Amino acid sequence: MEKIKINTEFIKLDQLLKYANAVEGGGMAKNVILDGMVKVNGEVVLQRGKKLRDGDIVKYNNEEYIISTEEK
């Protein structure tokens, strides 16, 4: 599981996929989310603007990413 550190209150799902280099760009992020290929905390999410906060776990393409804020 890869820890993704953010210094804001939240990060949007499509931005996270780009930030973590899980996808090549915004268009690809949109497509994999809308195709139901991304899970957040174990559930398929189809909203690319879904706000992810500290402790959320994203799974895509057999990789897991956990969101972490700087305060911890």
Kindly state the mean pLDDT as a whole number? 93
CATH domain topology: Structural Genomics Hypothetical 15.5 Kd Protein In mrcA-pckA Intergenic Region, Chain A
Number of strands: 7
Instruction: Specify Rg, calculated over alpha carbons.
Output: 11 Å
Secondary-structure class = alpha+beta
Q: CA-to-CA gap between the ends?
A: 17 Å
Shape: globular
Assembly status:
single chain
Number of domains: 1
Total number of helices: 2
Largest sheet: 5 strands, mixed
GO molecular function: RNA binding
Protein name: RNA-binding S4 domain-containing protein
Keywords: RNA-binding
InterPro entries: S4_RNA-bd_sf (IPR036986)
What distinguishing features does this structure have?
2 helices; globular; 7 strands; two-stranded antiparallel ribbon; 72 residues; alpha+beta; five-stranded mixed beta sheet; Structural Genomics Hypothetical 15.5 Kd Protein In mrcA-pckA Intergenic Region, Chain A
Structure description:
The protein has one domain: Structural Genomics Hypothetical 15.5 Kd Protein In mrcA-pckA Intergenic Region, Chain A (Roll). Strand 6 and strand 7 (63-69) form a beta hairpin. The chain has helices spanning 13-19, 26-34, and strands at residues 2-6, 11-12, 38-40, 43-44, 51-52, 57-60, 63-69. 19% of the residues are buried. It is globular. Helices cover 22% and strands 35% of the residues. It has two helices and seven strands. Helix 1 crosses helix 2. The longest helix has 9 residues, at 26-34. The strands form two sheets. A five-stranded mixed beta sheet has the order 1-7-6-3-4, with no helix packed on it. A two-stranded antiparallel ribbon has the order 2-5. The chain has 72 residues and is α+β, with helices and mostly antiparallel strands.
